[in-house]
Amino acid sequence: MMIADGIEDEEKWLAEGIAGIQHNAFYLHRAVDSNNLREALKYSAQLLSELRTSRLSPHKYYELYMRAFDELRRLEMFFKDEERHGCSVLDLYELVQHAGNVLPRLYLLCTVGSVYIKSKEAPAKDVLKDLVEMCRSVQHPIRGLFLRSYLAQISRDKLPDIGSEYEGDGDTVMDAVDFVLQNFTEMNKLWVRMQHQGPIRVKEKLDKERSELRDLVGKNLHVLSQIEGVDLEIYKDTVLPRVLEQVVNCKDELAQHYLMDCIIQVFPDEYHLQTLETLLGAFPQLQPAVDIKTVLSQLMDRLSNYAASSAEVLPEFLQVEAFAKLSNAIGKVIEAQVEMPVVGAISLYVSLLTFALRVHSDRLDYVDQVLGACVKKLSGSPKLEDNKATKQVVALLTAPLEKYNDIDTALTLSNYPHVMDHLDAGTNKIMAMVLIQSIMKYNTCVSTAEKVDVLFELIKGLIKDIDGTLADELDEEDFKEEQNSVARLVHMLYNDDPEEMLQIICTVRKHIMAGGPKRLPFTVPPLVFSALKLVRRLQGLDGEVAGEEVPATPRKIFQLLNQIIEALSNVPSPELALRLYLQCAEAANDCDLEPVAYEFFTQAFVLYEEEVADSKAQVTSIHLIIGTLQRMNAFGVENRDTLTHKATGYSAKLLKKPDQCRAVYACSHLFWVDDQDGIKDGERFKLIFRHNWT
Amino acid sequence: MNYILGAFKPACHISITFSDGKSRKQVPLKKENGQTVMVPLFQSQENISGKISIEPVSGKKVEHNGIKVELLGQIVRELDVPGEIYERKTYPFEFSTVEMPYETYNGVNVRLRYILKVTISRGYAGSIVEYQDFVVRNYGPPPSINNSIKMEVGIEDCLHIEFEYNKSKYHLKDVIIGKIYFLLVRIKIKNMDLEIRRRESTGSGANTHVETETLAKFELMDGAPVRGESIPIRLFLSPYELTPTYRNINNKFSVKYYLNLVLVDEEDRRYFKQQEITMFRLGETS
Predict the structure, then answer these.
(1) Alpha carbon B285 to chain centroid distance?
(2) What's the pLDDT at A544?
(3) Mean per-residue pLDDT for A476-505?
């Protein structure tokens, strides 16, 4: 209820103030119309006295101020017309200073000052200097702010800029700059002081009130940027240092954030580039509560856009060592603000990385540097638990992937894996998936064993159990998806050179072997097929290979394959292993490597015999064996006989009679193959059937 | 105007005119009855001369015991020996190089007036008297030495200021220029004024009577300053009714002027520092 009353009261006071202004304005207009200067001064002073109120919030005070402002514009026109009131502007300048109350007096003085400057009877700089000094008499924050804002408004078009009609002798631009800087400094001081004045109010309300007035202060910076005579030199030597001095010294977080933002928005990017060190030097000196990362991000964004605007600009970036400076600055800020949470630091690095990727995309060393700095920060902090911080790290890692569309580049960043190490297991896996998706999306192909090694290190969260997580905790669906991704990834690892390809296969094997029983069923098959592809390629090259001792021979690969498939025995996954053995046998057959093919069949039968227990699985498996065996043509009679005999024997021993029949029937084909080199053993054929009917 | 003692009707009309009446500057003079009239302005060591015309009213002759003109209360001139006036008679008069070191002053408890008094003595019929006021103002050159006033004052741990006024002697149309510098501010100041106060003291010893009047209240500052702020002073004296400083005029009275710097805090407590300044009348030629 109290607050509602307060608002109502304020409305009432505002209405009273407006009425007071209107009342005096009536008499003022009458005095002006009859060219009565004395009366005009009297009523304008009374009118302006309404602005002496302490009862209004800034928002309401502004309304009152605007009314007075309108009246002063009309009064200024009267003042200008000496023929009407008969008083010289110099006398008028003194006359208005007779007013007893300081606020009306100064509003009138500024108004006459405007006329005085326009008359050119005195140099603009002298009048402006006098006005900005005299305004010091109003120390009340809100009243002072509005008064100085009035001064800023009426002086805007009368600055002694070069090329303006008010250009003076001597260092005219500096005069204009000094005036604006002084007004700015005083206005900022008053603005900051607002919070200490008046009854104690809730911080949010106070901040809101202060925010409403911030543009009054910021406008001065805009004016500075519009002064023609302010070139890079003057900006560098005078404007920026003095503005920053005030920003730092005021020690007010609201002001600092707003003003740093203003500086960045209002002055040209070229200037920022050339004064980067000075500008960045201010950041560590700001209050800890200032959201520096937003401001710095803004700056880096702008500079990135500037770099993108034209190719001629880029050498400038290198010449001023923009990246190094930004990097240093960020480091200093993080160092200085001990209280800054990790998420803050990481998002700063994300901004810096974005900058590096946009401006210096060819400089992978820069990118790696940022990652390195990030690693350092993460190493010094406890394990990441903050969700936001984690998101930032993921953003950091994703950015280079998106920029380069090429996993190769990311793989060359030495710090990339170190950053990933700092993610919690869950996020680490997510990141790994992102990596794989990136590869799939851009159809990139990872082509060296070394890169494959790095890659698999990066995605190790998917490949094996990292300390702390149990595979049991995982959702079935998610797990399948993960492993399938890894499987698909394997197919993206390729090199034309068989040696290298073999190395790749070995590297992959090394990694997936640590995957454990749950993963191997997913990861082994693609590797096997990848190896078989290599075999087929070598098979085609057979005879074309030079006489050197080359490690990549089909024989060697089959040895490897044997070992790989054997790992499945730990799962155990006999059926899968059996299939894979058969695939290998077929490939060995095509290479004319009879003993190798025979060995694979042997392994397959061993599995059948010892591991495949389920009757249904047995049926499927035996049919697979039979089918594969049928396609074999590398076997000599003995070997074929042995294998066929085994197949037939097992077929007959199947659990269900119908299955037995079918299997034996299938075996019959083993004796009679309807193609050119096929076996046609009529006797045996008959034997089978006879056997079966008993 | 006739001032009649003991008769009902004026017997004759007396008029006093100054020889340079048309060219001499006239200034307003507020009389005791509240009316303001314009009277001629003289400076010390000037000649006061003119004509006094006496004309009997309604043709009746006036017998008298002598006619004199006085420059109150200093000098007397006999205009005529006892005789009769039956038609208008004009007497020239002159007071040469009159020393009038004291200015006309219109104060609270004391007035210093210059008057020409014409008396027609008539014995039993009562004298006929006529007055003519005039004002004396003395101008001077600017003082050869005019130091500024600079002082640090304060209340321990509360408020320390340094004030500075550009001069210690000001002429009546002068400007007070200076500044107030805040060295320490631990109270919540609402505003700051500069007052001009006039202190008129009459009598002496045990009978001294002092009357103080604030002639001007000029706001210097609105709001609370912080340490290190410097507030400018620019106070034009022309709008105010000031006189020169009078020190011990004829051992009868003094008129002194003071600048009173007043700071008011949020609880309306007043802190002040008074400082005497000397006012003088600056000659137009200087």
Answers:
(1) 21
(2) 45
(3) 88
Domain that holds residue A42: 1-119
Domain presence at residue A276: no
Domain presence at residue A299? yes
Point out the domain boundary residue: A84, A101, A119.
A119
One domain for residues A259 and A304:
no
Number of structural domains (chain A) is 5
- Whether residues A259 and A291 fall in one domain: no
Check if B14 contacts A (Cβ < 8 Å): no
Whether residues A372 and A292 fall in one domain: yes
- Domain check: are A259 and A326 in the same one? no
Q: Which two tokens stand for residue A107?
A: 């509003």
The CA distance from A316 to A307, in Å, is: 9
The answer to whether the beta carbons of residues A160 and A175 sit under 8 Å apart is yes
Q: Is A409 a member of any domain?
A: yes
Q: What is the pLDDT of residue A403?
A: 85
Residues A99 and A156 in one domain: no
Closest residue in B to A103 (Cα) is B222
The label of the residue with tokens 């990339």 reads: A416
Cα gap A239→A242, rounded to integer Å? 6
Model confidence over A94-105: pLDDT tens digits?
999 999 999 999
Q: Is B274 helix (H, G, I), strand (E, B) or coil?
A: strand
The pair of three-digit structure tokens given for residue A415, joined into one six-digit string: 């710090």
Q: Which residues contact A169 (CB under 8 A, 6 or more apart)?
A: A123
- Domain termination site, one of A119, A135, A164: A119
Question: Distance between CA A426 and CA A429 in Å, rounded?
Answer: 5
Mean per-residue pLDDT for A224-251? 96
B258 burial via Cβ count (<10 Å: 0-12, 13-18, 19+): middle
The answer to whether B222 contacts A141, with C-beta atoms less than 8 Å apart, is no
Whether B61 and B84 have beta carbons less than 8 Å apart is answered as yes
**B146 close to B280: Cβ distance less than 8 angstroms:** no
Whether residue A470 sits in one domain with residue A399: no
For the stretch A393-421, pLDDT in tens is 888 888 888 888 778 888 888 898 888 88
**Interface probe with B: pick from A92, A133, A136, A139, most Cβ of B within 10 Å:** A139
**Tokens for A69?**
């402002």
Residues in chain B closer than 8 A to A141 (CB atoms)? 223
pLDDT, position A37: 96
Backbone angles phi, psi at A548, to 5 degrees: -70, 160
Omega prior to A58 cis, within 30 of 0: no
Residues A96 and A44 in one domain: yes
C-alpha–C-alpha distance, residues B138 and B143, integer Å: 14
**Inter-chain contacts counted by CB atoms under 8 A, chains A and B:** 50
Cβ neighbours, 10 Å, residue A576: 18
Q: Show contacts of A636-643: CB within 8 Å, 24+ apart.
A: A636/A594, A639/A594, A639/A598, A640/A679, A643/A598, A643/A601, A643/A605
This model of the complex carries an ipTM of 0.88
A555 occurs within a structural domain: no
d(CA A46, CA A65): 14
Query: Are A338 and A204 members of one domain?
Result: no
Q: What is the share, in percent, of chain B residues with pLDDT greater than 90?
A: 63
In this prediction the pTM is: 0.81
